[in-house]
Amino acid sequence: MSERRLSDFIKAYDVRGVVPDQLDEDVARAIGAAFAQVVATPEGATGVVVGHDMRPSSPALSRAFAEGVAAHGLDVTLIGLCSTDGLYYASGALGLPGAMFTASHNPAQYNGIKLCRAGARPVGQDSGLGEIRDLAQWSLDRGDQVGREGTDRVGEISERDLLADYAAFLRGLVDLSTVRPLKVVVDAGNGMGGHTVPAVLGTGAGLPELPLDVVPLYFELDGTFPNHEANPLEPENLRDLQKAVVEYGADLGLAFDGDADRCFVVDERGEPVSPSAITGLVAEREIARAVADGTPAGDLAVVHNVISSAAVAEVIRENGARPVRTRVGHSFIKAEMAREGAIFGGEHSAHYYFRDFWFADTGMLAALHVLAALGGQDEPLSRLTASYDRYAASGEINSTVTDQAAATQRVRDWAGEQGDVTYDELDGLTIHHAATSGAQGDSPLWWLNVRASNTEPLLRLNVEAADRGTMEAVRDAVLSVVRAG
C-alpha cells in the first residue's frame, strides 16, 4: 500500500505537489501509465508529447512519465524545455495528447503536470483526471508503477526540438515586421519566458530580426526564482519591470509567469494595464481580422469570465460580435470557446485563448497582438488602452470566512436594500446595479461578484463601478458585511 495519497495533490485541473514528498519519479511513472490507459489509447493516439519547465526536478519527472506511457505501447516525443503554450502548440501541431511538467509560479519545492488531449483539449477532473488519479493510485498501492498486463509492445522515447516551429507559428498569426521600432522590457522572472522570448521576439530560433529592442530582465532559467516569484498577478512582482520601463524610456513592459502561459503588460509610464483592457484590445483585433477574412461580425463570439470588466462585453458588442460570459477557470473558458467556436477568450488573470491556437491559452500570442497594435500607430500605450479601461475596479479581495454560504446571503440581503439590482449565480453571486437618475440624485452603475474558494475557507470579492468613489464605497460596505460573521 502506497503511503502517498494522490488526491492530496491532484486537483480539479492539474497535478501540483511537493517534490519528492508527494510527487517523485515513481508517482510520475504511474501517472504516465494511467494517462496512456485513460486518455491516449482510447483516443486512438499513437503517441504522447511531453515537455517541461526549468525546475531542477522537471527533466527526471518528465522522463519517468514518458516511461510509464511507453510501457503501454505508445511512442513518446520529449520536446524538452518549453513553455506551457509551447506544449499546447506541440499537442495541436502533432495531433497528440500531451503533458507539461510545471508548477507555474509555485515555489521551487513544487512541481506538477498539466495534461491535455490531442489538439490541446483540456484534461480536468470531469474529463479524465479523476480516472487517471484513481488508476495511478491503484498501481502504486499494489507496487506496480505501470500496470503492464496485456501490453506486448514498449513504445519508443525520442527527443525533438519544436521551439523554432512554435516561434514561426506564432509569428505567422501576427506580423510584426512592419511595425514602428519599439523598445520593450521583458521580465521573465527566471521562468520559461527566458527561453521563448528570444525565439519569438528575437533571432534565437533563427527567424528574421523584428523592429524590437528587447531589454531582458531575469532571463536566466532558474527554478529557485532568486529575484522574485514568477507570478505577475501579485503587484510586488511587477516592481522591477515598472522601474525598468521608466529607466530605459521603453514603450512598454511585458511580464511572464513561471511557465510563460500568462502575460501581463505595463505601459510607458510603468503603470500596469488591466488584463480586461488587453482582452478588449485583442478582441477588437481578432474580430477585425475575422471580418476582413469574410466572416460577418454577427457570427463571431468572444468569451470572457464573470469578473472581467463590463468594458469587455461593451467592446465586443461595439465591434458587432457577441460576448459569451462564463465561469472563472481555464477549463470553463476552453469548453465554452469550443462550444461556441469563439475566436478569442480572455480572463482577468491574464490567460488569453485563441481559436487559431486550438482554443488554448498563450500569453505570447497576446503579447504579439499588443506589440502589433502599439507599433501600428503613433500613440503611447497608455493612450491606446484608455478606451478599453472604462471603469474603476477593486481587483480580487479575499476574506477568510468559515460559513461562505451565510456570508454570501448577507451580501444578497445588503444588495436588496440598494435599489435597482439584478442577480445571477453563474459563478458565485453576481449583483448588477443599474445607473439611475432621479429626485434622490444620481445612482451610479456598479457590479460585484462574490465567489467561494473550492479549496480554502475564502470568499473572493470583485467590485467594479463607474467611478472610484462608488467602487470604494461598495467595496468597503460589502467587505464589512462579509466579515461581520
TrEMBL record:
Single GO biological process annotation from the record: carbohydrate metabolic process
Molecular function per GO: intramolecular phosphotransferase activity; metal ion binding
Reported cofactor(s): Mg(2+)
Residues in Alpha-D-phosphohexomutase alpha/beta/alpha domain copies: 11-126, 165-270, 290-391
UniProt cross-references to Pfam families, sorted A to Z: PGM_PMM_I, PGM_PMM_II, PGM_PMM_III, PGM_PMM_IV
UniProt entry keywords in alphabetical sequence: Isomerase, Magnesium, Metal-binding, Phosphoprotein
Start and end residues of each Alpha-D-phosphohexomutase C-terminal domain: 396-479
CDD domains reported in the protein's UniProt record: PMM_PGM
InterPro entries in the record: A-D-PHexomutase_a/b/a-I, A-D-PHexomutase_a/b/a-I/II/III, A-D-PHexomutase_a/b/a-II, A-D-PHexomutase_a/b/a-III, A-D-PHexomutase_C, A-D-PHexomutase_C_sf, Alpha-D-phosphohexomutase_SF
Keyword Phosphoprotein: yes
SUPFAM superfamilies: Phosphoglucomutase, C-terminal domain (SSF55957), Phosphoglucomutase, first 3 domains (SSF53738)
Record-linked PANTHER family: PHOSPHOMANNOMUTASE
Family designation: Belongs to the phosphohexose mutase family.
Protein name (database record): Phosphomannomutase
Natural source organism: Lapillicoccus jejuensis
